[in-house]
Amino acid sequence: MKEPKSEIYTILSGLGSAYQMQSGVTRDMPCYIYEVTGNSPIYSMDKKVVYQNIEVTIDIYAENSKGSGVLLTTLVDTMLESNYRMIYSSDISNDKYSHIATVFNLVGY
Questions:
Q1: Of 67, 99, 71, 101, which Cα lies nearest the Cα of 87?
Q2: Contacts of 87 (CB under 8 A, 6+ apart)
Q3: CA distance 75 to 95
Q4: Nearest to 64 by CA among 97, 18, 106, 31
Q5: Residue among 20, 92, 83, 30 nearest 57 (CA)
Q6: CATH fold for the domain made of 4-106
């Protein structure tokens, strides 16, 4: 069985500052803040995990829109290399910094 929290941290920390989701806390910018928002295993008849439906929410924070856009492109490419595809992305309005919210899910196992 995959342990997505550790896996996602390893992926993101290779890109820069990565933190697990904490309510209302923004760390050093630029950074990625992530949360595993779904982890549903699918079992075979002999009770072994054959697939996991994993969903991860990753927020990108940067000082400006250009910076967050570059981070988004890099994130999408890196996550695809690890078999996660982006299924949602949205700019979040904020006067102090650029914030992009994304959701990824596991493509295969």
A1: 101
A2: 103, 104, 105
A3: 23
A4: 97
A5: 20
A6: STM4215-like (3.30.2000)
Interatomic CA distance for residues 40 and 23, integer angstroms: 24
Cα gap 25→42, rounded to integer Å: 34
HSE-CB of 58 using CA atoms within 13 angstroms: 32
Amino acid at 11: I
Print pLDDT tens along the chain (109 aa). 788 999 999 999 999 999 887 756 566 889 999 999 999 988 999 999 888 899 999 999 999 999 999 999 999 999 999 999 999 999 998 888 899 999 999 976 5
- What tokens were used for 59? 């927020």
- The pTM of this model reads 0.89
